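stage 2 :: seqdesign
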């Protein structure tokens, strides 16, 4: 797939939003991946659509083609840069290890999705895509947002961590002296981008002096 300049997009990154609080993290991540010229493959669960409508002013259609158009308009993506897949789209490239390789981020990750991935349930495309990422030894970052964690949640996180999954809880720090909610969102998204090896200017790395920068959009 190529961008408007006729050059290929950078390797795809799969982003899945599930039904935990923190939809803003996933939406911001998609925005920054687009800005970094990566192809972005998106899956949004039914519960995540409800969370997005509850937590934000963003309204996204459920139908994959229309969802891709809406996200493209919101992020300024080039034609074809964002691809969206439905709950049971088993022909999607993320459904098989023989499909195109892609790092994957589940952000936010509900504890139900955490459980399903930890036990290999694969009852929907998000769970199957995560299962593929694990078996193919690809980068998988899961961003749980729950408090407190029960022993069940912690055991599932330990199981996944031992399999090489990055467990990155949505627990923003404050040493960068955030002034707005957007700064807290970017704190977590910066950590995700670090795990993906994607450069960013969201905030200075530890020991650097420059002031945090923000390129957030309204909505």
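stage 2 :: out
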């Amino acid at each position: 797939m190529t961008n408007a300049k006729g050059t290929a997009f950078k390797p795809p990154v799969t982003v899945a939003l599930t039904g935990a609080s923190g939809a803003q993290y996933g939406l911001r991540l998609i925005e920054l991946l687009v800005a970094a010229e990566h192809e972005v493959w998106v899956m949004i669960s039914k519960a995540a659509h409800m969370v997005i409508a509850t937590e934000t002013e963003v309204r996204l259609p459920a139908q994959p083609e229309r969802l891709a158009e809406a996200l493209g308009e919101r992020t300024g993506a080039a034609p074809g840069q964002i691809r969206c897949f439905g709950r049971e789209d088993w022909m999607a490239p993320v459904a098989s290890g023989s499909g195109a390789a892609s790092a994957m981020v589940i952000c936010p990750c509900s504890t139900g999705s955490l459980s399903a991935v930890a036990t290999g349930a694969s009852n929907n495309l998000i769970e199957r895509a995560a299962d593929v990422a694990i078996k193919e030894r690809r980068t998988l970052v899961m961003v749980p947002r729950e408090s407190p964690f029960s022993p069940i949640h912690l055991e599932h996180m330990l199981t996944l961590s031992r399999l090489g999954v990055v467990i990155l809880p949505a627990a923003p720090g404050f040493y960068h002296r955030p002034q707005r909610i957007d700064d807290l969102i970017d704190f977590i998204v910066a950590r995700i981008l670090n795990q993906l090896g994607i450069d960013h200017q969201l905030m200075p790395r530890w020991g650097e002096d420059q002031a945090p920068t923000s390129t957030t959009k309204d909505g």
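stage 3 :: structure notes
- Residues 54 and 183 are 21 Å apart (CA to CA).
- The longest helix spans residues 181-196.
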